[in-house]
Amino acid sequence: MSLFLLCRPFRSLSSLRDLTSRVIASVVPILKNGTMLQVISLSIVLHLSNLAGAPASIVSRAQADVVQVYSAIGVPIVWDATGAPPAAGALHVVLLPAETGVLRLTSDTVMGAAARTPQGTGVAYVYYRRVEEQAVRHEVTLAHVLACAMSHELGHLLLAGRGHAPSGLMRACWRRAEFIQADQGLLRFSSAEGADIRSRLDELEALVEDDGGHGAGHQLEEDDRRQQREGPVARHRILHQ
Fold first, then answer.
1. DSSP secondary structure letter of residue 55
2. Which of 27, 159, 160, 164 has its CA 20 to 30 A from that of 196?
3. Are 39 and 27 in contact (CB under 8 A)?
4. Pairing mode, if any, of strands 23-32 and 35-50?
């Protein structure tokens, strides 16, 4: 099974207000050495468009599973419930019935793709019917496989410069074993991948704490300029068997 992925890290933000297009900041009270401290905590915001007409119960369960996948690596996820169009630079999960464009010409089954729009919006496409077919084929729970497909595609948008891994959620070739792991809630990011994603949030949290978010915006703008200098990122083709 083939997936085409365009990998990008976060792109530019200019202020803490803009930060809410892809992450939100909250103040979390913690007790340390007998003293109550107020700590800034960031959560990644995801927007969902169900253009595949997938049953709401399955989508809702998959969304909850995605939260658990990222929670396991210490990365908080919040699904936007406002229904408002995602702002430029947001992270957007789009469920489509099946693959589109040139992906329809491949002989392999395509379950999803990840890309960035010219405005910097990260989009994780997941092809619902293909996910459904594989869930039936391997006799596993559809919502669990859908969640792992979402998490995999989002991983390519969140991991800094990383493609695929020899094992786990970011493996380039899913075998029956990976589908079984997905069904059991065991298909996860590696510790190194988790640290990679988590370090990005840690950097932003430190900048927000220091100056109310202005440094975070500056840092992300610099990331954007660097990406422009480096040029487009190559597509990666991954096979699921």
1. -
2. 27
3. yes
4. antiparallel
- Residue entry with tokens 């909850």: 64
What are the two backbone dihedrals, phi and then psi, of residue 180, each rounded to the nearest 5 degrees? -65, -40
Q: Are 227 and 8 in contact (CB under 8 A)?
A: yes
The SS3 of residue 187 is: coil
State how far the Cα of 28 lies from the Cα of 25, in Å rounded to an integer.
Answer: 10
**Residues near 55 by beta carbon (within 8 Å), at least 6 away in sequence:** none
Per-residue confidence at 120, pLDDT binned at 50, 70, 90?
Answer: confident
DSSP reduced 3-state for 148: helix
Which one-letter amino acid corresponds to residue 73? I
- Phi and psi, residue 186, nearest 5°: -115, -5
Give 223 or 11, the one with higher predicted confidence.
Answer: 223
122 phi and psi angles, rounded to 5 deg: -85, 130
pLDDT digits 0-9 by tens, 166-213: 999 998 778 999 999 999 999 999 999 999 988 877 776 665 555 444
Q: What is the DSSP string of 82-136?
A: S-PPPPTT-EEEEEESS--GGGGGSSS-EEEEEEE-TT--EEEEEEHHHHHHHHH
Q: What is the C-alpha separation between 43 and 205, in angstroms, rounded? A: 10
- Tally the C-alpha atoms within 13 A of residue 238's C-alpha that lie toward its C-beta: 27
